[in-house]
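Deliverable D4.2, example record:
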Amino acid sequence: MWLIGVLGFFGFVIYAIMSLVSAIRKTGKWKKYLLFSGASLLVMFIVAAIDGTNDVQAATKNVMFLYLK
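Output generated by the structure prediction step:
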């Protein structure tokens, strides 16, 4: 699952740069690239939220185990 998050990050960076370049060159595709960049950022945040919850739950269980020991 982390691979999708990494790809989302790289997609965000690449499409953000392409959007800036397109806006400077005035080709008219900057809006489309900016939309793709936002979608990639959204995918990255969703994957981070889904993937991160398991780690927090596991850490909480470990802390509670050590505390009750």
